[in-house]
Amino acid sequence: MMKEFSFDNFIYRLDNHPALKEQAVEKHYKKGSHVFVQGSVCKDVFCMRRGLLKLYYNTIEGKEWIKSFVADKGVVGSRSSQLLAKPSPFSVLCMEDTEIIRYPYELFQQVCSDDYELTQSLFGFTQWLGLKKEVREYQLLCLSAEEAYSEFLESNPKLLGRLTQIDIARYLGITPIALSRIKKRLA
Fold first, then answer.
1. Contacts for 6-15 with beta carbons within 8 Å, 24 or more apart?
2. pLDDT tens, residue by residue, 109-118
3. Are residues 17 and 37 in the same domain?
4. Structural domain includes residue 1
């Protein structure tokens, strides 16, 4: 199982940086609302204090593919928007009431570059995120649906009971019927 990144120190440093404090916008999102949607340009960095987010893609045909879930604490944003000023290829939906602090990307980038401890913390976050994405790619490309589901259960205990079976199936890239069959086989 992959070790979780500790957001506590990172969040503390962001909260207490004078330039970020001045530009921070705190927002409480209700369950079912979007932080940003696919197709919009959103250059900000979103630092989640509590809640549950679903990051997902919609295909032209209207099919939803779940990129990831972010639970309790985390940082999200669209790199396409932040770095290239292009529309985000994915949406972020609040699956629970969620508290987020929003920072302008350019300021966030400058502050992190100028503050050694923030740089170190951000580096740790990017290492953790890179590993998380590598594991996710491996699961999608190399594991059977049953193996991927078993790994999902093992590596995401804090998500159990908070997600619908439909969302778990979409995350795994299978149908809810296929997930139901897998669950019966594993029972």
1. 7/73, 7/74, 7/75, 7/125, 8/73, 9/121, 10/75, 10/118, 10/121, 10/122, 10/124, 10/125, 11/47, 11/49, 11/73, 13/115, 13/117, 13/118, 13/121, 14/47, 14/101, 14/103, 14/118, 15/101
2. 999 999 998 9
3. yes
4. no
